[in-house]
Structure formats: structure tokens, C-alpha cells
Amino acid sequence: MIGGRTWVGRRTWVRLDNASNIFLASRSDADPKVFRISAELDHDVDRELLQQALDTTYGKYPLYHAVLRRGVFWYYLQDSDLYPVVTADEQHTCAPIYQADRRNLLFRVVHHRRRICLEVFHALSDGTGALWFLSDLVNTYVRLRNPDLRNPDQSRPAETARPAGDSLPDPGRADYATGPVAGPAEPVHALIADSFAYYFGRRRHEEPVADRPVGEGPPPDGPQRSPWWRRRRVHRIRGTRTPDHRTRVVELTAPVPELLDLARSEGVSLTMYLTGVFFEAVRRSSGLDRPRTLAATVPVNLRQFFPSTSPRNFFATIRVEHRYGHGSDDLGSVCRELDRQFRLQAAPEALERKLRRFARFERMPVLRVVPRPLKDVILGLISRASNRGLTVAVSNLGRVTLPQPADGCVGRLLLHVSAVRPQVCVISHAGLLTMSFTSQYHETGHVREFARLLTGRGLTVTVAASRVTEEELAESEP
Question: How far apart are CA 375 and CA 13, in angstroms?
Fold first, then answer.
């Protein structure tokens, strides 16, 4: 990751936002809080050209020059003179990046055959910020390889939008923070204050910024979700942990139009349809024979409602659940119930109220003077308690359109996330939607049932899986 070149610039620093502090406090060997976005090209990657493209792209993103430092009361990002070097993809996906005893960059660029992969420590950036970086990187690489290609909109960042033909608003697109981004066309890549502080941390900012509707549904002032300590016992997927904590990945790929038709037939968004299918797959693979609750957390892109062009973390999470054995448990009914819960909580006003409460909590005088190590313990305990009330996390980065000429040279895009609980990451490009299932377990029974549910409805689904056990790794050796 570290080369011999230097970047000359003014030393600046900024405090981490709320989300980033939680990532640091809750990271572990099994969940290093790393995510990967990959672009699959139409040719094998040229490493030398990719390094040239990285050199150019890196200069446009001062945020990605930052290293993480520890203070007495908080963590902060600080400029550095380090420089990234492209490497072969020899580690398992989402391998740890941040090391407390080392001063290193918080991202890496690797390649394998036709894939260019960007891995990011989540405390640095969210999925939208990473997608902007990867978009510029791939576009610069394609132009270096094909210098005769013209690109009239080279500075335009990658766009994410609702998959073509999806007439239903789907604001739950990202961890990752995705969806249409309001504001200036050119993102601000500098090391600047976070958008949470700008929108929710100032008392003088009283008038709600967001007034866009989130589609038809119940009013935002409907019943609130119960706090985590009052929730029912939630079913959690368990299994045999992988060796050396490596992440098991299973990738399913299916045509976007066919999946949208299935979601539309149930009258729900694509994200909630896939969440409902996952719940049904877990129920079938686990053989649940008594009433149990399944719950999912779905990150939402706040840029859709609160304009921001910062690549730093700017998302909120929404929790949805269904209790089997109480009412209708068929797939359509479950999907519609999840969709109703999601729309209720994803209204801009509801999101703003929730985030202002978090901001007030962070500003409490007692917490401000608590030393950082003790804050880490407290936040870590809160995170673990919250995880006990979840079955899965579902992140949908939506449909991505890359700038030209990169868009025409890229096929699938993929998103992987390390997670202490099973995670489903969804992203689409070039008419193909890729669903990546990640977990720390060998077993993939719920993924098998998920694929069967889709193929049973007429979809064509392709499957690829990573090797994690000693036997599987031995089979891959020449």
C-alpha cells in the first residue's frame, strides 16, 4: 500500500462522524469493517496502466490521502504523504485494512483477471464515495488503454438510479449511501467536516431540509419501532466459522428486468422483495417450526433527501421485521409488510427526527469528556446488543451508470461487505443484478434456498462462490 512517493500539501485533520466511530468500536477479526466494490471489464487488467490510472485518480481525492489517528477523546482523519500501489488480489475479500499500530492508508486497489477492485475501511468513506473513486479510476484506466476514445463528460461522477422500469420509489439503496444525489454535479473530495454535523449537529438549523415524498404509504408520524431492548427474540443464522476469519462469498447474478417484474407483481420495491425472499430462504433452510421473528437492517442514502457531495459516510439504517406464525406468512404478504414498515421509517421527516436524536445524544457534555478507550467499549457493547436483534443486513447500491467510455467496457459490478452477521449486497449494471451473500460461516444453505426461490419463479440465476475451507483451497492450487 505504501510507495516511496510523496504528496505535498497542507496538513489538515477532521474528527470522525458518528457512524465512523461505531465502525471503529465494533470492528473485530471476523468483521474488520471493510467493503469492496469491483468492476468486471471486457479484458484482463493491465497492471501498469492501472497504476498510472491510480496515480492520476488519487490526486483528485484528498480524502483518500488520510490516515487514522487516535486522540484522547476521539479519532480523527489526518492528511498524509503516503501513496497507494496496485497489487494482485491475493488476500481474501474484505481483508483487514486499518491497523491501530500502523500509519497506513485506509483503502487498497487490487486486480484479478478482469476485475478491478477497490476495498475501503468503512470509517473513511461510504459506498457512494467509493463508487465515485472507482468510477474515476476505471474511466481513467480505459482512456489510457484506448487513447482514441473521446469522453465529453469525463469529470461526471458515477450515477446511481432506480433500475430501469422500476416505477416504485426505492430509497433503501445503500450502505453505502446511494441513490440520486442532489446538489452540484462535481463531488467535493476534500478532507472536510461530515454532513451529519452540517445537517443535524447545529441548533440554529431548525427548519427541515427534506420535503420530498417517499412514495405512497402511511404518514411518517405512524407507530414507531420498539427500542432494541424491548424487541422479541430474533432468529439468527449460525454455523461453523471459517478459518482465519475469512469472509465466505456467494455471488448470484440475474437479469434486472425479470427481478423487477417479480417485485412489481407483489407491489413492493426491489429491496423489500429481496429481503422477503431472504426471510423465506432462511425459514426453509433452518426448518423453523415455531413462531420466530426475522429482522433485517437496510441502510438508506441520506443524500437523496439532504443534499451532500461529500464522499464521507452519510447514511442511516432502517430496521424491518416479520414474525412468522402470527398472521399471513406467504412471500407476498411478508414483502408487503416489510415494504410498509420501510416506507414509514424512510420518510425524510422521520429520518431527520431520528438523526437529530442521535446528534443530541452525541453532544451530551458527559459523553464529550469520556476518554476514547471507554467510548470504544460503550459503543462496542451497543453495537453487539443491536446485532443480536438482527438476522441479516441488506444493502442495495441500486443501478449504476458509469461515465463514458468506461460504461461500455464494464459488465457486472459487485459489492462485498465483511459482516459479523450474514449480509446481502445488491448492485446492478449493464442489465445484470449481482447479489453477493457474505458471512463468516461455511454453511450456505440459506443462499441455496434463495437461488431456488428465484429459479422456481422462472429466473435464470448464475452462481459463483469463494473457497474458504482447507479442502476447497487445496482444490484451487495447481
Answer: 20
Min mean pLDDT across 33-37, 92-96, 188-192, 206-210 is at: 206-210
Tell me the C-alpha distance between 297 and 375, whole Å.
Answer: 24
In contact, 155 and 139? CB cutoff 8 Å: no
| 352, 205 Cβ separation under 8 angstroms | no
Q: What is the CATH number of the domain that holds 81?
A: 3.30.559.10
Enclosing domain of residue 137? 13-212+231-476
Q: What is the pLDDT of residue 179?
A: 40
Lowest-pLDDT range of 228-237, 311-320, 385-394: 228-237
Compute how many other C-beta atoms are within 10 angstroms of the C-beta atom of residue 458: 9
Report yes or no on 199 lying in a domain: yes
- Amino acid in the structure at residue 251: E
CA distance 253 to 255: 7
**Can you give the pLDDT at residue 474?**
53
Amino acid sitting at position 455? T
Is residue 9 over pLDDT 80? no
**Mean pLDDT, residues 256-266:** 97
Considering the chain, what percentage of its residues have pLDDT values greater than 70?
Answer: 78
Residue 8 lies in a domain: no
Domain assignment of residue 6, yes or no = no
Based on the structure, what is the number of domains in the chain?
1
- pLDDT tens sequence across 184-217: 345 556 666 678 878 887 543 444 333 333 333 3
Task: Report the mean per-residue pLDDT for the chain.
Answer: 82
Residue 226 domain flag? no
- 84, HSE (Cβ side, Cα atoms, 13 Å): 29
Q: What is the pLDDT of residue 211?
A: 35
Average pLDDT of the segment spanning 348-364? 83
Per-residue confidence (pLDDT) for residue 41, from 0 to 100: 97
